[in-house]
Amino acid sequence: MLPGGPEGALLRLPPALVASPEMGGLFVTLEGIDRSGKTTQAVLLLDALGDAATGVREPGGTPAGERVRDILKDSDVALSAEAEALLFAA
Hints:
By secondary structure, the chain is an all-alpha fold. The chain contains 4 helices and no strands. The protein is elongated and about 45 Å long.
């Protein structure tokens, strides 16, 4: 059960946001410090929205992006601040 009420209560969006003819969709970002549960919340949101949602992450989402992500997350790879910024911008 999710905090604050019955299962899925926190994941309901107002119908005007989901079915608005003026809005083709929503782009939702989840921000937080490391290990704060961003991935868990993203998975819960994707599950709640079903096939109407597409999950992405930065960097990543493509084979090249996943390789860049692996480099950035590898603690054995020493990167300067400039190199890290350039990899995020790639």
